[in-house]
Amino acid sequence: MPETERYRKVDLHSHSVCSDGRLTPTELVDLAVEQQVSLFSLTDHDSIAGLEEARQRAQQKGLVFINGVELSTQWKGIPLHMVALDFDLDNHILQQLVANNQQVRMGRARSIADLLIKKGLPDLFDEAVERAGKSQIGRPHFASLLVEKGFVKDANKAFDRYLGNKHLGKLRDVWPELETVLSALADQNMALVLAHPKRYPLTVTKLKRLLADFKQWGGNGMEVASGNERPDHVRLLERLSVEFGLKASVGSDYHGPFGPWMQVGKYTQIHETSVQLVWQNWH
User: How many distinct structural domains can be found in the chain?
Assistant: First the structure.
C-alpha cells in the first residue's frame, strides 16, 4: 500500500445534526462514501444519539464504521476536547459521562441566557432550546437568534459582543476534569484521543505537559491531522506523537459544507512513517 493510502481513506472525526453539524447521520455517511472514505467515525459533541443510524447506513453502503464521541473536558482551567473511539454503545460508563455532559450543556445554556439578560437582552433560553432541537444546545444557537432578532449583524459579531470566551468568564470552567474522564475510561478497551491539540491556547512547553498528563491518566492517542491544519503543525504533532507514545489519529472535523477545505476525508496529510496509527489493530 502506498504511504499516503494509510491515511487518505480514514476519517475519525466528524459531526452531524445530533450535535453541531449540518447533515443527518445518514447524509454524512453517504457523503463519506461519495468521498471514497473506507474507515469512518461519527464523533458528535457529547452525544451518541446518531451512532445507530450512522452504523445502519454504513452497513448498507459497505462502509466500515467506528463508534465515536467527542467529550468536553478541561485541563488546568482550559476547555478542551477528547475523542473516544471504538466502544460498544451499551458501555454504561461512557453513557453516564455523556449524560452528565448533556446536563452540563443545558445548565450552561441557562447561564448564558441569564448573562445575556444582564446585558439588556431578552430571555432567549426557550427559543435556543427549540432551535437546537435534537442537537446539543450551544452558543451558535444563541448567536443565530441574536442575528435573527437584529441585535447583531452576523454570528461573528454575536461572539465578539456577547458570546466569546472573554464574556463567559467562569462559564468556561463547567466541564469535567480531564483526569476524571480519562480515569473512568482508561480500562474500557477503547481509543482515547486528544482532539486537535494545536487549537488550544498552549505553548509547545504547555502542550507537552498536557500530553504527558494525558498519557499518564490513560489516554492512548492524539490527532496529528485535523481538517485544514497547518503543515508545520502536523509535522510537530507527528513528532510529539512518537515522543509521548500516543497513537496517531486523523479526521476532517467536518461540520458542514462551509468550503472546499472543509470536506469529509480531507485533512493535511501525515508524512512521518514512524507514527503508530490508532486504527492499525482494529478489525
Answer: 2
Q: Is residue 266 part of a domain?
A: no
Check residue 133 and give its pLDDT: 84
Each residue's pLDDT tens digit, 8-29: 599 999 999 998 888 999 999 9
* Dihedral-angle region of residue 9 (phi above 0 means left; psi in -120 to 50 means alpha; beta otherwise): alpha
pTM strictly above 0.70: yes
Nearest Cα to Cα of residue 264 among 51, 34, 7, 52? 34
Q: What are the φ and ψ backbone dihedral angles of 187, each rounded to 5 degrees?
A: -105, 20
Question: Does residue 79 lie in a domain region?
Answer: yes
Asked whether residue 162 is assigned to any structural domain, the reply reads yes
Using a 10 angstrom Cβ sphere, with 0-12 exposed, 13-18 middle and 19 or more buried, the burial of residue 118 is exposed
User: For residue 94, what are the domain limits?
Assistant: 5-98+177-251
> Is the CB of residue 193 less than 8 Å from the CB of residue 222?
yes
Extract the runs of DSSP E, i.e. beta strands, from the chain.
Answer: 10-11, 39-42, 64-75, 78-85, 191-194, 221-226, 247-251
Residue type, 178: L
200 and 117 in one domain?
Answer: no
Give the CATH number, domain containing residue 66.
3.20.20.140
